[in-house]
Amino acid sequence: MSGEPRGHAARPGQRGGRLSPLDVAIVALYLLIALAVGLVFARRAGRDTDEYFLSGRRLPWWLAGTSMVATTFAADTPLVVSGWVREHGIWKNWLWWCLAGGGVASVFLFARFWRRGGVMTTAELAELRYGGRAAGWLRGLLGLHHSVFTNTITICWVLVAAKKILAVLFGVDPWLAVGVASVLALSYSLMAGFWGVVVTDLLQFAMAMTGAVALAWFAWAEIGGREGLHAATAAGGAVPAERIAFFPPAGAASFFEAGFWTAPVAAVAVYLGVAWWANDAVDGGGPVVQRVAASRSPREGSLAVLWYDVAHFALRPWPWIIVALASLVLLPDVTLRAPQGGEVVAIRADAIEIAEVTRSADPGPARPREEGRFTVLDLASGADGDWRAEPRPGLAPGTRVEEGEIVARSDPEKAYVVMLKRYLPTGLLGRAIAALLAAFMSTIDTHVNLASSFFVNDVYRRFLRRGAAPEHYVGVARIVGAVVMAVAALFALASESISGLFTFFLSFLAGVGPVYVARWLWWRVTAWTEISAMLASGTAASILAIHDTGWSLGPLAPEGTLGYEGRVILVLAMSMTVALLVTLLGPRPEAARLVPFYERVRPPGAWGPVARLASAHAAPGDLRWSLIGTVGGLALVFGVLFAIGQTLFGHDSAAMIATAIAIAGGVVVAAALRRIYPGGAER
Questions:
Q1: pLDDT-based confidence at 164, cuts 50/70/90?
Q2: CA 528, 530, 534: angle at the middle one, nearest 5?
Q3: CA atoms of 90 and 599, how far apart (whole Å)
Q4: What distance in Å separates the CA atoms of residue 516 and residue 521, rounded to the nearest whole number?
Q5: What is the reported pTM?
Q6: 341 three-state secondary structure
């Protein structure tokens, strides 16, 4: 393989946006299979809510874990990862790699707690954990929050990805793109419920992974592999050196000086030091908890989460990262700047018109803006076919721009789709498109089903209509799913940035993470603790997103604008202050009321007054071995992650060290699981 990238000389997949009959047949075959699954499982799913939302709690670990991986492999994920690598570098992925901390802790602590609790949703836990009227209202509040907001926003950013994918591949209108994507996802998920979700997830995971690996293979070959990548980084090439670094370069000053803390270094410090526990999924999160609850036993739930952690954080990112790095060589950024200060007067499909505004002293009604220069910026200038500049988000007629200000640029999140279109040959292109559809549908069906479960289980059946027939609740769930999908589609039409939605979502819920951990380990946490943290976190995040405070946070507010990392710190500080005051100044919980929860879940930690009243307790050494297992799990996950990356980049010594760390971590994980589940049984 040559060490020099071949550039644009060969494009086996480039066909001007037209799919071959073979490609169309492959996509159609996948859609028929998905619809067939919906028809096969429709009757079983309609029996009752346990079947519709949890598959009767009979899932083996491998199916539950694969379903977790598939549902988090959304169509938006390769797009946003590609955008991060192009804009910042590999290190930007620590924004989500850091979440492995909570994911691995769930293997040894939270997964078995959720399964022992026997709840259907995370909201239902509130009433089990706290008891009383406040706990009931918290359950209802969480049910509305997750059915109306969190799952709807997740569906929204997945639909934004679908809009971008269909626009690049077929050039279709956004309304049509979102409409088609919505109908496809709803067609089988409403019929088959959770059975349809997990069964199609197996096919979707296999297709999505093979499609991603195939594209990575062709893209890697197109630039000449690791030799071509290194050549592209040499002497200020197409790929800056910091793009392939696992960690961003620090400033020239020492660690304790301000010059050391560049914006990227400060961002990674926030990810690894704060963000991994300051999020609502630190103890599992909705999709993971749903699959743990559907598992056959607590042990099966723990194994499912372990498989998910390794596949999600260590194995799956590399095909996307390879494509993103190759795209830097093959798809240079296209940026258009305003040649003059003025006002945008028109935005067309192919151009942006800017007029230099110079009003006369007494302009008549017929000549309000006739003086000054007039410029037309060609959006296809410097572009190459399907890779071109697009108006920046928020730019509209009437917008004032300064000379040199960026008004249009190529969308980094579309690079992945352009690479797919250009460099996959006939047959594989159709399979890759079907894989993206599979990834899209595996996420949509989960969150439609999850939103319905929160509304039906924690709002409708709990507060509005009790004691109805099981078929009635399944029917309501199907209606709610369709409504949630429609609302998300409307939001998707007004959104352009997947990354922007994702980071707002993380900051919105940053303040509840510490409370979600503490409620398992400390008896003093009350329903009002959780309610106050939730309200304070959402309020603070919304205010900071709408109105920049102007506070100086150094590298966390680059160029004077508060970024996601700075928002997380402020949201966490505000919400934790409120929650701690409510906990310490409010009334203590009644220990006797917490005994049923404690005896069922048997959590370790500070439960003294409750444990003295209970007949069942956490096993000796439970918390110690859980912490040991978590450390080993992190070594396993990040050891595998680094071993693959260092091997790809030709750093053999570093790859061997990472492999040794992964093996050692695996040994510790096995030992911890044997202690927690002696003889493979629940303890």
A1: confident
A2: 115
A3: 45
A4: 9
A5: 0.85
A6: coil
Nearest to 158 by CA among 191, 181, 192, 187: 181
For tokens 């695996």, the residue is: 666
What residues contact residue 318 under an 8 Å CB cut-off, 6+ apart?
Answer: 216, 644, 645, 648
CA distance 546 to 454: 28
List the structure tokens of 519. 């409620």
3-class DSSP state for residue 3? coil
The span from the CA of 35 to the CA of 184, in Å, is 9
Condensed to tens digits (0 to 9), the pLDDT of residues 58-79 reads: 899 999 999 999 888 777 788 8
Give CA–CA dist 198/68, Å, rounded: 9
Among the listed residues 514, 561, 520, the one whose alpha carbon sits nearest the alpha carbon of residue 537? 514
Going by C-alpha positions, the residue among 532, 443, 572 that lies closest to residue 78 is: 443
CA 585 to CA 582: how far, in whole Å? 5
φ, ψ dihedrals at 384, nearest 5°: -140, 90
Average pLDDT score over residue span 474-487 = 87
Asked whether the CA dihedral 55, 61, 64, 67 is positive or negative, the reply is negative
Please check the confidence at residue 683 and state whether its pLDDT lies above 70. Answer: no
Strands annotated E in 422-462: none
Q: Which residue has the tokens 């056959």?
A: 296
Tokens of 664: 């050692």
Tokens of 310: 């390794």
Q: Which residues of 633-644 are buried (b: 16+ CB within 10 A; e: fewer)?
A: bbbbbbbbbbbb
Average pLDDT estimate for 621-625: 90
Q: pLDDT: is 376 or 355 the higher one? A: 355
Lookup result for tokens 């099981």? 470
Instruction: Give the H or E element holding residue 266.
Output: helix 263-270
User: Token match 């946490």: residue?
Assistant: 525
